[in-house]
Specification:
Elements (H helix, E strand, L loop, with lengths): L6 E5 L4 H12 L3 E6 L2 H13 L4 E5 L5 H15 L4 E4 L14 H29 L2 E6 L12 H21 L4 E7 L28 H8 L6 H14 L3 E3 L3 H15 L8
Helix pairs in contact: 1-7, 3-4, 4-5
Length: 271
Amino acid sequence: MELNGRVAVVTGAASGIGLALTERLLTEGMSVVMADIEAPVLDRESSRLRDAGAAVLPVECDVSDPHQIAALRDRSVSAFGAVHLLANNAGVASGRPNAKTKPEVWQWVVGVNVLGPAYGVSAFAPLMVEQGEGHIVNTASEAGLASSPMLGSYHATKYAVVGLSESLALELEGTGVGVSCLCPELVATRIFEATRNAPPELGFRRPDPIPMEAIEQMMGTVAMAPADVAADVVYAVRANRFWILTHQVTLSRVHRRNDELEAGRNPTFHR
């Protein structure tokens, strides 16, 4: 897929993987619609990029609201005439035991992580099919391929994104619209501080910054730079490649999970 001169929409674009992807797509010659719920950060980053001459359009957007997603589509088309690449990247996490996760937290996590990509597909895929070309990248996670304790809502939603993406790829085969599923392991982002964007009524206190070194030590891995993930995404879009994995260890964990499944063994946690 040719990127130069085309238009991308990126959700969760104000930080982390979304911001790195925005910056990489701009270097590829794309115009980028930056969608994010964190308005002050979105304004800061989009202003920085525009001051440097980039063609970006910031849109404050809650991806769990289908009306806001529809408005995002309409503003994108109105501003640039078409959309060729959609990155359903916005995501949140809440680390707590399944049995202690409140219904309101489930609704928040599912709304952003599952319904956000689903609404994005509903709004943008018909446009791409009609124009005969395009690509959709859904950000799932290694957590959508292998599980661990304490992240039940996150795992449930990321498994859902993997299933959504696989089904979508089968449906769009032959239409000229490609699909990729991004399943990163640890990346140097603020996903562990995602409750900063939670609805106030959930009662989350403002999260303290978590040093990435501490997370790396806890998980026994090395955090990948968001810019490197963005490079992997661009390669996958150009090559029409479905799976985007950031760490080799992901395949090992998936193999162990599948071995347990085939053998009928109960799940175990593999670091």
